Here is the input.
Amino acid sequence: MDPTPIWQAPEPRLVLASTSPARAALLEACGLAFETRPPAVDETAVLAALRAEGARAEDAAVLLAELKARSVSARVTDEDLVLGADQILEVEGSWLEKPADVAAARAQLSRLRGRAHRLVTAVVALRAGARIWHAVDAAELVVRPFSDAFLDAYLARCGPTVLGSCGAYRLEAEGAHLMAEVRGDQFTIRGLPLLPLLAFLRDQRVLLA
Here is the structure.
């Protein structure tokens, strides 16, 4: 990362508990100095348990974000501010996870074709292992009824990049071609409720107000 920008305090250190390039790109685009640490959470198992309990997507996203942050918080200092984030795609009462391969992405996009779905995104902040803040937001997207020929061409062009999101698309890139309508915050769709997060960082004096 570049040196700490003039609007960001050198302390506390900001740590992103995520391996998501999209989330890192959002923070980098804002000029934030941070470190990334991979979380150690079995997301599939946690989601399965939460689905069995009938949890809401919003509550599940917050819990997973906190678990990710907590797994990293144990490996940093008490002064560090750790951010965990999660996103859940909800379609007709079901939750979809990131596709494992291009074939799974094709099946997932075929399921979303012609339907509306929600992207629920949460971010949680921990310090010294305790949650001190969180935010959750949702956006609704309507996928257009595209042809099989378009779907095959889209997957051939995008390749493995579609595996990085639970919707198998990047709205900021060629995923826009899949959509008929988008309602909600673009940052939420890309993986972070960014404006509430920046407001929190200003409140914490991580950023200048």
Summary: The two ends are 22 Å apart (CA to CA). The mean pLDDT is 93.
